[in-house]
């Protein structure tokens, strides 16, 4: 068993989520192979054709998660199988999306299914990623009168009066 590869792949998936949530687009891009394929359909986006290529995936996420949209992803329960310079894995995940401009809170969970490749520079990257949702829920923040977003990394700074 290649324990070093297992740890590198774990760190890769964690970095994928961290850089996505923090909108660190250059670092996020580096989690993918140049020819990566992403399957990101949801109830909100509907059934989508696969996104082909690292730049296409990053541009899609940059567009969909722009402005004040807040995301938080948590990955757990990795099952990783390494075969030389390729690997496959399943990850349980939970995600939260808060879209203040749309007054919506979305929560969900499911399982990611990833394929990885160790590139010629020796770095593991995601070659293909997809997920199966267990659930996705959406709630209007207007239905929760007591809801207050008291911290938002993406909000414009308050103006002094």
Shape: elongated
Q: What is the H/E string? A: HHEEHEEEE
The CATH topology assignment is Nuclear Transport Factor 2, Chain: A
Gyration radius, to the nearest Å?
17 Å
What is the total number of structural domains? 1
- Main sheet: which strands, in order across? 2-1-6-5-4-3
Return the CATH architecture. Roll
Q: Number of helix segments?
A: 3
The poorly predicted ranges are: none
Note the main sheet: 6 strands, mixed
Domain SnoaL-like: 2-128
InterPro entries: NTF2-like_dom_sf (IPR032710), SnoaL-like (IPR037401)
Protein name: Nuclear transport factor 2 family protein
Pfam family, one: SnoaL_4
State the main characteristics.
NTF2-like_dom_sf, SnoaL-like, Nuclear Transport Factor 2, Chain: A, Nuclear transport factor 2 family protein, six-stranded mixed beta sheet, 161 residues
């Amino acid at each position: 068993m290649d324990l070093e590869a297992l740890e590198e792949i774990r760190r890769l998936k964690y970095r994928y989520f961290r850089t996505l949530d923090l909108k660190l687009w250059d670092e996020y891009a580096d989690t993918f192979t140049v020819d990566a394929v992403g399957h990101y359909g949801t109830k909100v986006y509907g059934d989508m054709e696969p996104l082909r290529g690292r730049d296409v995936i990053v541009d899609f996420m940059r567009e969909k998660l722009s402005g004040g949209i807040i995301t938080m992803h948590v990955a757990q329960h990795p099952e990783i199988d390494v075969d030389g310079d390729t690997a496959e894995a399943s990850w349980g995940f939970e995600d939260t999306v808060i879209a203040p401009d749309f007054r919506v809170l979305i929560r969900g969970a499911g399982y990611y299914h990833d394929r990885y490749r160790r590139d010629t520079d020796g770095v593991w990257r995601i070659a293909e990623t997809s997920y199966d949702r267990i659930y996705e829920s959406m709630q209007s923040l207007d239905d929760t009168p007591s809801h207050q977003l008291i911290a938002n990394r993406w909000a414009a700074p308050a103006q002094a009066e």
